[in-house]
């Protein structure tokens, strides 16, 4: 399945996104919510891919894990809660701050933990953590539209994963060796031209698919903080949020 998306020569980032989204829909691999265009796409087999994270040493060693709120990452959020790890989920579109800490009720059943891992559960069982909050993230899990075996990543085009990572660097919540994992379908693993990458683009260290675990050994530097001169701004609930596109 890997390589099923054949990128056109000279493809732009947006071309890559469109080709992946189109392929997922046309091949019957796309899963709820549909259509997957302009989203971090959910796909058939996402839960199986998520379960693979439990086999990674970086997951076993982690105490505090940041997982994006995208639907295909729901299985990772559940795995973190079941392992009694501290789970941080970014506020969608950074509307009211940076993180929500998921706090399951005392004695939560397996079913309650499943609910906590969903977008609705994040709303109901979380407490906000602001930019001045004391977080020490041991593992970062992000969604992707496309990713290469070298660890080069393309998101949905709004820059939030890149910005969240840059903000975590600025607040000391991640270190230069904090591992980054992404969960994708095999068909989303494509050859990405390095010239498409910008300084603010987040790279990944592990790629989990329904059939493979790929360690990228990526040597490209991750964002070292917010690159202010490349950021545009939007007001979200009184918070001035830098954006990368």
Automatic annotation (TrEMBL):
Gene Ontology, cellular component aspect: cytoplasm
The entry's keywords: RNA-binding
GO MF, one example: RNA binding
Gene3D superfamilies, A to Z: NagB/RpiA/CoA transferase-like (3.40.50.10420)
Signal peptide location: none
A UniProt-annotated Pfam family: 5-FTHF_cyc-lig
Protein name: Methenyltetrahydrofolate synthase domain-containing protein
């Amino acid at each position: 399945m890997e390589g099923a998306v054949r990128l056109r020569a000279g493809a732009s980032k947006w071309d890559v996104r469109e080709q992946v989204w189109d392929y997922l829909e046309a091949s019957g691999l796309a899963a709820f919510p549909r259509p997957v265009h302009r989203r971090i796409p959910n796909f058939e087999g996402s839960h199986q891919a998520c379960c693979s994270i439990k086999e990674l040493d970086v997951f076993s060693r982690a105490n505090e894990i940041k997982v994006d709120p995208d639907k295909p990452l729901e299985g990772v959020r559940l795995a973190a809660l079941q392992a009694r790890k501290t789970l941080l989920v970014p506020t969608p579109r950074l509307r009211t701050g940076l993180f929500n800490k998921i706090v399951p009720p005392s004695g939560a059943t397996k079913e309650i933990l499943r609910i906590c891992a969903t977008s609705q559960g994040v709303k109901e069982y979380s407490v906000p953590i602001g930019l001045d909050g004391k977080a020490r993230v041991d593992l970062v899990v992000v969604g992707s539209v496309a990713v290469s075996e070298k660890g080069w990543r393309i998101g949905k085009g709004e820059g939030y994963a890149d910005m969240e990572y840059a903000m975590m660097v600025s607040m000391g919540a991640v270190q230069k060796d904090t591992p980054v994992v992404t969960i994708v379908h095999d068909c989303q693993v494509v050859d990405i031209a390095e010239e498409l990458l910008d300084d603010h683009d987040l790279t990944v260290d592990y790629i989990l698919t329904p059939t493979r675990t790929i360690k990228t050994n990526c040597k490209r530097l991750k964002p070292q903080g917010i690159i202010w001169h490349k950021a545009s701004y939007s007001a979200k609930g009184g918070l001035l949020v830098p954006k990368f596109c």
